[in-house]
């Protein structure tokens, strides 16, 4: 084949790809539908010119088009890893972790249901063996992620719902291709009636093997990329190699699913990359992958569409009946998931509620695409598959894909309109009127200032000002006459806008390197949670999300347990240092939000709403300061080192800004500028390094601050510091339950605890203890202890506590005073005699 012609054809396909996007926007059709139609037209035209006697001039071009190296291996080994890897890099994984149950259930269960539904429907309607029918079911059970994403963007679906469906559409490709590999093996070995239990038993092996391969490959790649931190092109080049090596390694060396390996590698890099790679390098890496995925997705679609005329040239009339069976069975299987499984997950609170109009949009929007065609092509190319099976698989998969693209894809926007999903809600519509009024007022002030500065003609200014004033007056009157926004709704909308501005502020701080990329992920996660909580629960939801942002998570409890029981301190040190930096980053961001409330919220929603939001913001700042003070008390000196690090990073940012300004003004040349920037980069690496946290030393300083241990010498305090175990509890967590045995004394390092017994309550704070009365008496204490703030506790077992009592007069006095406050006899406690009460 002439290499010149092939190069010309491929280059021309890029022109087609470039024209498809604006054409799709003009025709209001999905981009993938336009690509499929153009590919079919090009493939049909090539076949026509080869078989016609009208002219032979275009035969070389037609032969070059039909002779392109379009094989299933090209799709599966070249294009598919790129698409899957980029999709995982673009996902907000920390938010998806909150919804991992519905995502995994929908991804796995939906694929299995669709595979079985289509497979058994075909088995009853055709003469194909069951293995071939299930193979077709696995091929057609994959949805096109890009189509799903474009659907939800077009209907402005709730973020959490969109996130769940996007995650499901990505992961179901992996599950479907794994099932495809299983059933393809049965068909090639001539097993007509496979046992589903045996087939599904191998499914976890493919999944686990692929996941481990991808995870290991990603960690190796991240280590290499971190070594190339100052060489951005080298770093990006390593990321390009990662999905392909992971795919090939899983398929050829491990015998697992290469698709799962690519997904696992992408997820791992998404989670670990921002904290290990330079921020700008990570941004550029994402941009490169977005471009690669755009090209790969477009090429795989148009090249697969070129094959459609050839795949359908042997179609029979009876095949149309089977295509109808596949269409009905696939839609029915998806309906079972949407109207059966999703409501069940909602009832058990594992998934957000999905309204019927959204379910209908998801059902009709289940477009199939290039992955389906690529898998069908793999079957048609295999000589170990019977000829009739190859023909039927190619025709059914192609016919079903065409139905989803040409019928569902072209009517999807109309269906969305009929369902009312393309219209703003009454609240959003009223809100838009308010925003227009405020925006026009700001524009009028800016235009007036501009006309004064440039001394424009008075008559022209007056004429334009009159026209603009009439428009502004109409907008203000419309906004004031609106009765659609209640005060409650105004507060909700204001809080959503405030959380959105907080998110933008975080991104700006990351670009300035004031907030580290490691903390950016967590702070952005908190901002996203605030947005969704305000949208779902209004003021109360916002408050709950704000409390969650400063609370200790389950990971702290696990790290504390590992430290206390196994002596493994690394997770606790890592999480504690992260918490310090997170709280400092939150404090930095929150200080900038009051100006946004004054500038924007007050003008849109009024003084009362703005004052309420300022009060909520003040409470958030107070919560962060309280949590930070607790950490400072627990680890004195560490917060100061982090603040010094922040000042050094800020100074470096200002220094860089000055060098750039001098270079732009021509005050320094390129050589001097390069030298200065290299020196600054070296100092920035040192400033980015987070100071180490030594829990043992910090606990020694903390124990010194307890008034209870004031009379102990340094040796005793060190021994006590080694014996104490740390426990972190969230606001509202139960520490001790009534009638439960008490095994340790609890010292409050930071936070507050409420004790309740016999209808009476006591509140204890930093430096106080509880649990000792039950240990020093033989009577079971009916006391419940509950944290009323994020609290850090130090725990000591009874034997060491008794020994400590003998050495510390201050501690004995504190125990006696505590007993007297609760109506107990201190002398009887010390002797261990039963209590009178």
UniProtKB/TrEMBL annotation:
PROSITE patterns in the cross-refs: CNMP_BINDING_3 (PS50042)
Region (Disordered): 816-837
The keyword Repeat is annotated on this UniProt entry: no
GO molecular function, one term: sodium:proton antiporter activity
InterPro entries for this protein: Cation/H_exchanger_CPA1 (IPR018422), Cation/H_exchanger_TM (IPR006153), cNMP-bd_dom (IPR000595), cNMP-bd_dom_sf (IPR018490), RmlC-like_jellyroll (IPR014710)
UniProt record, GO biological process: regulation of intracellular pH; sodium ion import across plasma membrane
Cellular component terms per the entry's GO annotation: plasma membrane
SUPFAM superfamilies in the record: cAMP-binding domain-like
Stretches that traverse the bilayer: 29-49, 61-80, 100-123, 130-154, 174-191, 203-222, 253-272, 292-308, 320-341, 361-380, 392-416
UniProt keyword annotations, A-Z: Cell membrane, Ion transport, Membrane, Sodium, Sodium transport, Transmembrane, Transmembrane helix, Transport
Domain Cyclic nucleotide-binding: 708-822
Extent of Basic and acidic residues compositional bias: 816-830
Membrane topology classification: Multi-pass membrane protein
Top-level lineage group: Bacteria
Signal peptide interval: none
Keyword Hydrolase part of the UniProt annotation: no
Record's subcellular location: Cell membrane
Classification via PANTHER family: SODIUM/HYDROGEN EXCHANGER, SODIUM_HYDROGEN EXCHANGER 7
UniProt-recorded name of the protein: Cyclic nucleotide-binding domain-containing protein
Naturally occurring in which organism (per UniProt): Palleronia sediminis
